[in-house]
Here is the input.
Amino acid sequence: MINANDLELRAGARLLLEEVTFQVAAGDKIGLVGRNGAGKTTLARVLAGESAPAAGTVRSSGAVGYLPQDTRVGDLGGLAMDRVLSARGLGELLVGLRDAELDMASADSARRDAGVRRYGLLEERLTVLGGYAAEAEASSLASGLGLPQQVLGQPLRTLSGGQRRRVELARILFGGSQTLLLDEPTNHLDADSVSWLRDHLRGFRGGLIVISHDPALLESVVNKVFYLDADRCALDVYNLGWKSYLGQRETDARRRRRERKSAERQATALQSQADKMRAKATKAKAAQNMQRRAQRLLAGVSSERAPERVARIRFPVPAHCGRTPLTARGLSKSYGSLEVFADVDMAVDRGTRIVVLGLNGAGKTTLLRLLSGLEQPDSGEVRPGHGLRLGYYAQEHETLDTGRTVLENMRSAAPGLTEAEQRRILGSFLFSGDDVAKPAGVLSGGEKTRLALALLVVSGANVLLLDEPTNNLDPGSRAEILSALRRFQGAIVLVTHDEGAVEALGPDRVVLLPDGIEDAWSDELSDLVALA
Here is the structure.
């Protein structure tokens, strides 16, 4: 399926992996794990053939289906169903059939006859490729991921970010690839869809590599774990399930610590003896040999594992503002004939905490985009209050300039800071050294999340609009942002599937979409968060 030989990966000048060899065979369900910046997404891109390794080779037999963290949706004017079917080359056929149907209805006899002939040829090709049975299969997969027929019949541009992500996942699963590479596949999925995906992946007979921060998914699906050790630039292969791996990894870490301490004791004794012998000219050569033995001892064991780094997030005291810095009245939004919501009112008071709930496609992201000014409502208005300073975190990272570097994005967001101050803030979000010179477009999903949060911190905002801010984050960084949200003194409007994020926020009010009902928060609503 996939064979990697003597693989070397680098991020700029930094070594990520060195001389790694492994294979992914049918039936392997591999969890690819490692700390922030270890190179998980880089490795996935190399295995998918989307980038080249610094050295070594990757050979694949059979098709490889790759779901990156950042959603790719193709032609936004195309229908969602056509995008799913395009994985087997069926999307263009269906578009051609619809065009032929229009020609067949033409008053022009020549055009009508050409339409009939074209329709027959296309229908014959559709039958050979599985035709309408394949369409039913695609619908079934999409339904499992929470995409009903009504959504599949809509243009991609009318769908929310969460729905587009589901369309891409359905496309990859429908493609029939022998190997799947899934990078954070549960992002934007509700509880029912996550449960369906776990069952589907358990039954998948090909090879699978999954990158995920969802321990329930890893425990349920994987039968092997690849641990990418950033300290040793090595890939440790565990032929174990998730729970057994966690225990074995801790055992391995204790063994390495014992080996290191034993080697250090022996090396210290050898070095001490060498120092004593060096004083005598007749024993200088023996002393030199003893010192080399000490160096070989230390070189033969792993270095002390560095503590896992997490982003350090501290929001400054927000700028002063009036009692109600942001108000919305009578907001309505439609995309073509699809009405997202109508007549939504909202008042964001100073320091208030609001959660926006609704099923995927109910308009949660659209509401935040209207409040941020990135989109305009069809009717109604958004009114900024006295002293409003708005900070918007977009789930698709649209606020990042992907053509500019990490440091250039920070310069644009905080032109008043010196470069040293900008680098210090980026360092607290784990961007240090050459990392700040990387274009934002090549960052992994987790890195883009950290950069977007860094830009939010320097904004001085007193109202934060946050759309799925914990997606793509490792457990340590997620805990850090939740702690920062608890301490933030400004107002927050939050969209999330993360029950822990809602608990950390301690909301005062809730807005339920698409009806636009605004009410006081109740703990009874907590069960709706994962289902939303």
Q: What stands out?
A: The radius of gyration is 27 Å.
